């Protein structure tokens, strides 16, 4: 164990840190330090502020007051990207792209971390969580516990200096939980600093060098055996002659109330304000990260049958009116005004389809809970948005061109020759070809 008391060797140092959501204090005036290579347990009941602390130290939320140093860097908006490069977070819920395979999920994150030897790292992480034989399965087909393991593999392969594990064994069977414990032991031997939140004292005792007990404020901190001695050893057994109707009123229900109290669920989905600020522009935009988001989105679209069907049918609506107009025209009525009107109508496709695709992309990230894990990688806001915009742009332009080509083929084959020759003219075709991508970009 590395003592946290020695300055200069601290992986985490937290100094009077607080986070408030409106009227509610999530955690208040919390101070502690974690040494390099230490496994530090963060124990507390529901709603104690454990996850909020992890999200704050992981740069997803800005603290209300106080200061901290994470992986050797002060917790400031400017250091957000560099801190995220040095840490990894396994969040409470796995947050996986369910239509993508296990390996595709990890490959996407390898690109977000710009990992140099991605395939090797992914293979090692998969072996570590014993998922090598299921790497090609879609995450949607995995059980809850197996998804937890994928999330763990994702947190491991970037070789973080500090690894935050938010209740990593929650929902796992005893054998799987034991595997995770062994994995944490092996990470400790490799010198990784681990910040582990848990509800379970015995898990903290088994794994942690030191434990902090949080219930909005920090209640105690020390070695697990010390804490057990201090908090749980002195018990008084009282036997009553008769059964008491309300024992809590006599002996004080404080402890039981603490255990039973439930915190309100963590609000998800909205891009945290601190993150929006921290992920603001920087000069070194990474094309690899943009490509990772782009290809990941395209894969998700392609594997969503409802979306593919909607993309095939929705644009066709825009050629019904033009086709009716064209076939209702007499051969002599092939005026410029008539065909301009027809072509303008079809520009509805590049104007509307991208909105539909982009809305789907956002809803899908929220539903799968993937925003949080993505935003804890070193990605910048611009890279994320550009990847998403390109992924909405490509299918929209392809759909618009395909429908336009279909329309022209119908006109060329079935319309009266006079109408067809008036409609199929070089400048109009060129205008349609140019306006489609311009309008798509504007719409996005
Ligand atoms: N985004 C948010 N907006 C408003 N309140 C929040 C938000 N996130 C957390 N809280 C509140 O902050 C408090 C601490 O929540 P947190 O999720 O950190 O607890 P926790 O210790 O992780 O609990 P659990 O063991 O249930 O996971 C709770 O009262 C919660 O309702
Ligand atoms: Mg939590």
Question: What are the defining features of this structure?
Answer:
444 residues; alpha/beta; Rossmann fold; 6-stranded mixed sheet; 4-stranded antiparallel sheet; 20 helices; 10 strands; 52% helix; elongated; disordered N terminus; binds adenosine-5'-triphosphate; binds magnesium ion
Task: Please characterize this protein's 3D structure.
This protein has helices at 50-57, 80-86, 102-112, 118-128, 144-156, 174-189, 201-207, 224-232, 247-251, 254-260, 273-278, 287-302, 305-313, 317-328, 336-346, 348-368, 371-375, 381-414, 417-423, 426-443, and strands spanning 10-21, 24-35, 39-43, 65-70, 73-74, 87-90, 162-166, 193-198, 210-215, 217-222. With 444 residues, the chain is of the alpha/beta class. It has two domains: 10-101 and 138-231, Rossmann fold (3-Layer(aba) Sandwich); 287-443, no CATH class. α3 (102-112) runs antiparallel to α12. It is elongated. 40% of the residues are buried. Mean pLDDT is 81; it is low at 1-7 and 252-282. Magnesium ion is lined by residues 50-51, 92, 166.
Q: What is the CATH topology of the largest domain?
A: Rossmann fold
Radius of gyration: 29 Å
Report the average pLDDT across residues: 81
| CATH C-level label of the largest domain | Alpha Beta
Which series of helices and strands comes N to C? EEEHEEHEHHHEHEHEEHHHHHHHHHHHHH
Largest sheet: 6 strands, mixed
Query: Any idea what the CATH architecture of the largest domain is?
Result: 3-Layer(aba) Sandwich
Query: What's the total number of strands?
Result: 10
Rough outline = elongated
**The CATH H-level homologous superfamily of the largest domain:** P-loop containing nucleotide triphosphate hydrolases
Q: Which percent range describes the beta-strand content?
A: 5-15%
Bound molecules: adenosine-5'-triphosphate, magnesium ion
Give the strand line-up of the largest sheet.
Answer: 6-7-8-3-9-10
Query: Low-confidence spans: pLDDT under 50, at least 5 residues?
Result: 1-7, 252-282
């Amino acid at each position: 164990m590395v003592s946290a008391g020695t300055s200069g060797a601290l992986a985490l140092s937290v100094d009077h840190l607080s986070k408030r959501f409106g009227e509610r204090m999530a955690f208040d005036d919390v101070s502690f330090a974690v040494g390099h290579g230490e496994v530090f347990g963060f124990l507390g009941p529901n709603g104690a502020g454990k996850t909020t602390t992890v999200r704050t130290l992981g740069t997803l939320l800005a603290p209300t007051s106080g200061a901290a140093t994470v992986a050797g860097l002060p917790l400031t908006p400017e250091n957000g990207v560099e801190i995220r490069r040095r840490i990894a977070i396994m969040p409470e819920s796995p947050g996986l792209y369910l239509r993508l395979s296990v390996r595709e999920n990890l490959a996407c994150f390898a690109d977000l971390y710009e990992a140099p030897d991605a395939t090797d790292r992914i293979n090692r992480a998969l072996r570590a969580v014993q998922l090598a034989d299921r790497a090609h399965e879609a995450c949607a087909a995995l059980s809850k516990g197996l998804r937890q393991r994928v999330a763990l593999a994702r947190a491991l392969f970037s070789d973080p200096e500090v690894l935050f594990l938010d209740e990593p064994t929650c929902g796992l069977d005893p054998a799987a939980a034991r595997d995770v414990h062994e994995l944490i032991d092996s990470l400790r031997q490799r010198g990784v600093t681990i910040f582990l939140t848990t509800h379970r004292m015995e898990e903290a005792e088994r794994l942690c060098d030191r434990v902090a007990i949080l219930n909005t404020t920090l209640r105690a901190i020390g070695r697990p055996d010390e804490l057990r001695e201090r908090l749980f050893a002195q018990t008084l057994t009282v036997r009553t002659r008769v059964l008491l109707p309300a024992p809590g009123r006599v002996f004080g229900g404080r402890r039981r109330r603490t255990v039973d109290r439930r915190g309100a669920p963590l609000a998800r989905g909205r891009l945290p304000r601190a993150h929006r600020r921290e992920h603001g522009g920087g000069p070194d935009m990474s094309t690899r990260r943009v490509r990772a988001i782009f290809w990941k989105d395209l894969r998700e679209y392609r594997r969503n049958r409802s979306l593919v069907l909607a993309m095939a049918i929705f644009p066709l609506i825009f050629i019904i009116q033009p086709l009716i107009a064209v076939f209702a025209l007499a051969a002599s009525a092939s005026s410029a005004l008539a065909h301009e009107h027809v072509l303008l109508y079809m520009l509805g496709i590049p104007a509307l389809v991208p909105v539909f695709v982009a809305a789907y992309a956002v809803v899908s990230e929220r539903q799968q809970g993937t925003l949080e894990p993505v935003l804890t990688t070193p990605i910048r806001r611009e890279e994320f948005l550009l990847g998403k915009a390109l992924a909405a742009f490509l299918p929209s332009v392809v759909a618009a061109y395909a429908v336009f080509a279909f329309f022209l083929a119908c006109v060329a084959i079935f319309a009266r020759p006079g109408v067809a020759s008036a409609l199929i003219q070089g400048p109009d075709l060129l205008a349609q070809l140019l306006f489609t991508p311009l309008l798509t970009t504007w719409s996005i």
